[in-house]
Amino acid sequence: MAERINGGYTIIQSVSVGNTEFVLGENQKAPDPYVTWECRNETNYYWGHYFGSYYRARTDLFERARDLSQREAERAEAKARRGKERER
Predict the structure, then answer these.
(1) What is the pLDDT of residue 76?
(2) pLDDT tens column, 70-80
(3) Which backbone phi and psi does 45 adopt, to 5 degrees?
(4) Closest by CA position to 7, among listed 18, 23, 19, 17
């Protein structure tokens, strides 16, 4: 896999949820050397959260992925309930 860089940060970890990817970037020369972004198509990075600590950034990476996964599960459940209600 080719090295990915965004805004001077090298992407060192990623987690995918559906069509959305969350990434963790590192730039030791930056005031906040770690960042998490939401990402689409491996090139569209947005909603960055910046950190001075790798451990806080890594926690944020997994929390963001978990939160989106939970929202998608709730949407799917609501859609299934609406479908069952229409069948009645």
Answers:
(1) 83
(2) 999 898 888 88
(3) -100, 135
(4) 23
What type of residue sits at position 44?
N
Q: What pLDDT does residue 31 have?
A: 97
Q: Which two tokens stand for residue 88?
A: 């009645």
pTM of the model: 0.84
Report which residue type is found at 31: P
Q: Which two tokens stand for residue 80?
A: 């299934």
- The pLDDT score that the predictor gives to residue 1 is 59
Beta strand extents in the chain (DSSP E only):
5-6, 9-17, 20-26, 34-40, 44-51
Cβ–Cβ under 8 Å, residues 10 and 4 = yes
What is the phi/psi pair of residue 10, to 5°?
-85, 130
